[in-house]
Design brief:
Length: about 70
C-alpha cells in the first residue's frame, strides 16, 4: 500500500488513514467479485475542518436542551 500526504505529520497521517479506513468496506466488496489482480486508488480526505464545535449555552441543539 502507498499513500500520499498533502498535510505533514500526524494530521496528514490521520487524513490518509481515515480515507483508507472509510473506503475499505466498498473496496473489499468490489475486490471479492474481481477476476484477477486490481490496483485501487483511494481519494484523499479533504483537509479542511471536518467538525463543528458549539457552545450549547449560546446555541442549544434543540428547544429541550437544559439551560
Amino acid at each position: 500500500m502507498r499513500y500520499g500526504q498533502r498535510q505533514q505529520g500526524a494530521r496528514g497521517l490521520a487524513l490518509a488513514m481515515g480515507a483508507v479506513i472509510a473506503a475499505m468496506p466498498m473496496v473489499m466488496q468490489e475486490l471479492e467479485i474481481a477476476s484477477g489482480q486490481r490496483l485501487v486508488h483511494i481519494a484523499g480526505l479533504d483537509p479542511r475542518r471536518r467538525f463543528e464545535i458549539v457552545d450549547p449555552r449560546k446555541k442549544p441543539p434543540s428547544p429541550y436542551w437544559p439551560h
